[in-house]
Amino acid sequence: MVKPRTEEEIELLRENGEIVSKTLAEVGRHVAPGVTTKELDRVAETFIRDHGAVPNFLGYDGYPAAICASVNDVVVHGFPSDYVLKEGDIVSIDLGTLYKGYNGDSCYTFPVGEVDAETRKLLDVTKASLYKGIEQAVAGKRTGDIGHAVQTYAESFGFSVVRELEGHGIGTDMHEEPGVPNYGRQGHGARLLDGMTICIEPMINAGVRGVYLARNGWAVHTADHKKAAHFELTVVVRRDKAEQLSTFDYIEKDPDIKF
Ligand code: MF3
Ligand code: CO
Questions:
Q1: Is the separation of the CB atoms in 57 and 175 below 8 Å?
Q2: Does the domain made of 7-252 have the CATH classification 3.90.230.10?
Q3: Which of 3, 39, 46, 211 is the most buried (most CB within 10 A)?
Q4: pLDDT confidence of 3, banded at 50, 70, 90?
Q5: What average pLDDT does this structure show over 149-168?
Q6: Running DSSP on this structure, what letter comes out for residue 175?
Q7: What is the pTM of this model?
Q8: How many helices (H) and strands (E) does the chain have?
Q9: In angstroms, what is the span from residue 176 Cα to ligand 1's centroid?
Q10: Listed residue (252, 29, 253) closest to 124, CA to CA
Q11: For residues 204 and 229, is the Cβ–Cβ distance under 8 A?
């Protein structure tokens, strides 16, 4: 069941988006060589709770932390751990909130110190592919228009699109219909309606598109162990142009955050 949201519901999703966006920036201030991903999880959980929200990942299908911290060849769902970030790594920080009965969910991939040129390009292209997808999140279009835009852009740089995971509707549940794949055909898939709230989240690999699930049942790795990037924003579908409910501005306008 895909249902457009009321303006009241959209406002609550926007409040979640604000907390999530600010939490991502707070984590970003702590990303540096020498820091463990467990420390980043503590920063996020504390910040979320200090803002009156609850980390919605914690306990989701048994997930053990407030954030996913996916380093280098981990595409998504990396557990925060004692791994010490080092210069040249990338780390995707995916996190969400439950606040006033609604959900937030966004992700940003941070460079750790200086990264090589190919990695820099992977980060830039993945983020730009997300904005290409958002441009298609207009009433009357279909999920395949979003996927097609993301895929066409990312593949034009020689990168590949992970097929096994996708974006999703969001509301009182973190994951709602429709699924929002990062590949597809124009004019195919679920129709987008004015007021529909969705998360668009390209997962793009530097090498092959194949992935495998780690033995812990969560972490998804690239098959060739090359790096993967992941960016996610929550948007509301509108008639002329999608409106973002979360933003990377708190990260990118902060002179103290390396992005
Ligand atoms: N943030 C992921 C998504 O974008 C979901 C995280 S799964 C969890 O859909 F178990 F960690 F919550
Ligand atoms: Co999501």
A1: no
A2: yes
A3: 211
A4: confident
A5: 98
A6: S
A7: 0.98
A8: 5, 15
A9: 12
A10: 252
A11: yes
